[in-house]
Amino acid sequence: MAETDQERTEDPTERRKQQAREKGQVARSKEMGTAFVLVSAAIAFMWFGDWLYEGARNVFQTMFTIDRQQAFDTTKIYEAFGIAFGFIMWPVLIIFAFVLVATFFGNSWLGGISFSTKAMAPKFSRMNPLNGFKRMFGIQALVELVKAIAKFSVVAVSAYFLLKWQFVDILQMSMGQMPNMIGNALDILLWMFLLLCCSIFLIVVIDAPFQLWKHNKDLRMTKQEVKDEHKDTEGSPEVKGRIRRLQMEMANRRMMQEVPKADVVVTNPTHYAVALKYEDGGSQAPVLLAKGTDETAAKIREIALEYDIPLVQSPALARSVYHTTELEKEIPQGLFVAVAQILAYVYQLRLFKQGQAKRPKKPDSESPIPEDLRY
């Protein structure tokens, strides 16, 4: 059982993934980055190649038309270099920026953008020769060897078929005339380069899911680690239980402080007790100030007696109010008639104590309560 608990069989939690990302541990595919760099370079040369060609032609034209007198004049030489640099600068910068954006996108597509100072910190374990030998002859090294052989095989086979496809056109270039022959050769070369680079995506299709699987596998957790993390994030059951008890005690204390404000306490008579208040002349329905069962109900009755609040026995009404009404909320409309009878009795009892009315008759303990509100 202990061995089973130590096996990393559980999928990583979100917190484990976030901690790994903070350490710079994210899924990466070097093959994807390489493929994006090569393909973007091929596309950049196809789009901006004419501009680069014109710039290079102007550079050669400028540099090869310098006469002997200008060649020995440093001022003229610097001017010529400045003009040549102006011809070639913008196409080179555009191509470089295009490839740079594609490189960033290709390397961040899998795993997203991650910047971690922890990953930049030196690790002395990497300087251990034994760990180096393990990396050289481990499973990861074997996987990289297989990938290298696969890349070589895919590129070699793709190059063979591309050469076979363009073999006739390549032979016909020998019968062409300058400078058209150079343009045709460049077109064939660029298309072959682009298709050859795209062939690397065959490796990416396999490598990217593998890297995701390996990253998830490396982050797997034992059952005990999952339990410990749950305790750290959610708290131990003992602490949570204690917090709940303290919260209930505080809520009960606040609730008991509201009992003296009640107009009447309806009881079961012993198991349930609810304290109700109604603002005379107000538009609101009676409000539940306190409720409880057993010990809490006894405490409510004790406070009611202390503050001379009438206690009225109505088991069905007490249970219905307890189960259907939240604290400081109005009672349901279906209980209005039953509660109105209780309040009318309380008001008449108050007048009787003041000597202004006869002793009222106690309301029927079986109050008129709808079936859907009975408990």
From TrEMBL:
| Family under the similarity heading | Belongs to the type III secretion exporter family.
Is Nucleotide-binding included in the keywords of this UniProt record? no
Q: Tell me what topology the record assigns in the membrane.
A: Multi-pass membrane protein
Region Disordered, as annotated, extends over: 1-25
**Compartments where located:** Cell membrane
**The encoding gene:** flhB
**Domain of life, per the record?**
Bacteria
* Cellular component annotations (GO), alphabetically ordered: plasma membrane
The main location is: membrane
Q: Does the keyword Transport apply?
A: yes
Q: Mind telling me which residue stretches traverse the membrane in this protein?
A: 33-53, 88-115, 136-163, 188-213
Its biological purpose is as follows: Required for formation of the rod structure in the basal body of the flagellar apparatus. Together with FliI and FliH, may constitute the export apparatus of flagellin.
Q: What is this protein called?
A: Flagellar biosynthetic protein FlhB
Q: Record's NCBIfam families?
A: flhB
Pfam family name, one:
Bac_export_2
Give the originating organism: Idiomarina zobellii
* Keywords associated with the record: Bacterial flagellum biogenesis, Bacterial flagellum protein export, Cell membrane, Cell projection, Cilium, Flagellum, Membrane, Protein transport, Transmembrane, Transmembrane helix, Transport
Picking any one GO biological process from the record gives: protein secretion
